[in-house]
Amino acid sequence: MSNTQPTQEQRDHDVSVKIGEAFREAHLKSQDTSLVMDLLEQYKEARRKIEKPAGGKRFGAYIAYRSTQDEF
Q1: Max Cα separation, the chain?
Q2: Dihedral (C-alpha) 7, 49, 67, 38: value to the nearest 10 degrees?
Q3: What are φ and ψ of residue 4, in 5° steps?
Q4: 25/1 Cα distance (integer angstroms)
Q5: Whole-prediction pTM
Q6: How far apart are the first and last CA of the chain?
Q7: What is the pLDDT of residue 3?
């Protein structure tokens, strides 16, 4: 059995997905616009921690995007 540890990129991605999910829930259920906007900014900052290859997309971009959408 392999005991492979997740890379920093994978950990950053996982955090961004969790923040994306929190943003989605707050956007759907909260009347607190400040909370929703703060979560959106945190999501964007978390995604920016993941290096973007030249001319490409960041690791897990589509999955992260989907975490912010209603029908995830």
Answers
A1: 48
A2: 140
A3: -75, 125
A4: 37
A5: 0.87
A6: 32
A7: 67
Spatial contact of 27 and 36, defined as CB atoms under 8 Å apart: yes
- The whole-angstrom separation of Cα 23 and Cα 35 is 9
Q: Examine the pLDDT at 58 and tell me if it is beyond 80.
A: yes
Alpha helices in 1-72 (DSSP H): 8-29, 33-48, 61-67
How do residues 3-44 score in pLDDT, each as one tens digit?
689 999 999 999 999 999 999 999 999 999 999 999 999 999
Q: What is the pLDDT of residue 61?
A: 96
What is the residue type of 40?
Answer: L
The first and second tokens of residue 70, run together, are: 């209603």
